[in-house]
Amino acid sequence: MARVIAVTNQKGGVGKTTTCVNLAASLAATKRRVLLVDMDPQGNATMGSGVDKNAMELSGFDVLTKRAKPAEAVVTVSEAEFDLLPANGDLTAAEVELMNEIGREHRLRLALNTLRDNYDYILIDCPPSLNLLTVNALSAADSILIPMQCEYYALEGLAALMSTVEQIRETVNPDLQIEGILRTMYDPRNSLTLDVSGQLSEYFGDKVYRAVIPRNVRLAEAPSYGLPALKYDRASKGAIAYLALAGEMVRRHGSKKTATAVAV
Ligand SMILES: Nc1ncnc2c1ncn2[C@@H]1O[C@H](COP(=O)(O)OP(=O)(O)O)[C@@H](O)[C@H]1O
Ligand SMILES: [Mg+2]
Asked: Which CDD domains match (predicted)?
């Protein structure tokens, strides 16, 4: 059954969408079955996966508002070998429509429950704000992956995010875990980067991934071709970094399984 991971950070521009598309492609490259769920009305993960957000028949909107079954709205991104539940601006309308519904926070969870058996990983790309779409993502998730840039204000944003996680645990999802912290647009020549990086490790310990994502122009270029970096330029530093992240993630889950087996 799939592990559901929401990629989230209330700050915009930290690499959430880039991480979703490239991690999805990298996990698929290691033969994992992956579904990427776009929960951002901007539809960047959809476009970055090569699906035209203005030309699709069904999307997350239809799923959240129960106009379509989840499996009907999922498309296969053949180029990158993962599945996608696409999104566009209609998601904002879904949010408005759900506002007065009972159980509005759990619509995505119920939808994903019907799909979980088909995948090893379900990644959810979140919008950069704490709205009903984000709450749906955090309610549906087993854990959150937090991409962050190692800059001064990042830590402030992280404190806000941790308080959100606490609120989510108290209300809609008591089991929500921290999957990991991912350092993005990483520049080791910058002393502030190393400073912030050190503080992250102090606070989050081994939740901080060893893999770091460097600033790499290929990662910024690839979405305009509707491709993950792995398919756009597989030798690029960005593509290799996301492959390393996927490897680390899979190993972590693998070793956890072994640990439980040993404990039993
Ligand atoms: N490691 C990176 N190196 C270079 N550019 C990046 C990197 N990660 C993200 N970007 C670029 O930075 C911008 C913001 O990234 P994005 O993934 O859209 O962030 P978010 O989804 O958190 O708003 C995009 O233009 C993206 O192409
Ligand atoms: Mg985004």
From this structure: ParAB_family (cd02042)
- Please work out whether the CB of residue 16 comes within 6 Å of at least one atom of ligand 1: yes
Is residue 51 a part of any domain in this protein?
Answer: yes
Span of 41-55, 149-163, 218-232, 245-259 with lowest mean pLDDT: 245-259
What band does 158 get if pLDDT is binned at 50, 70 and 90?
Answer: confident
Q: Which atom of ligand 1 is nearest to the CA of 12?
A: 23
Of all ligands present, the nearest one to the C-alpha of 14 is 1
Q: How many domains does the chain have?
A: 1
- Residue 143 included in any domain: yes
Could you tell me the residue range of the domain that residue 73 belongs to? 3-252
User: Is residue 260 domain-resident?
Assistant: no
16 in a domain, yes or no?
A: yes
Q: Which atom of ligand 1 is nearest to the CA of 220?
A: 27
Distance from Cα 14 to the centre of ligand 1, integer Å: 6
Q: Ligand 1: does its nearest atom lie under 6 Å from the Cβ of 42? A: no
Spatial separation of the C-alpha atoms in residues 164 and 179, rounded to whole Å: 15
Predicted confidence (pLDDT) at residue 211 exceeds the cutoff of 90: yes
Q: Can you tell me which atom of ligand 1 is nearest the CA of 215?
A: 3
Could you tell me which of 38, 21, 48 has the C-alpha nearest to residue 86? 38
How far, in Å, CA of 158 to CA of 18, rounded? 19
Reported as type and span, the H/E element at residue 27 is helix 16-29
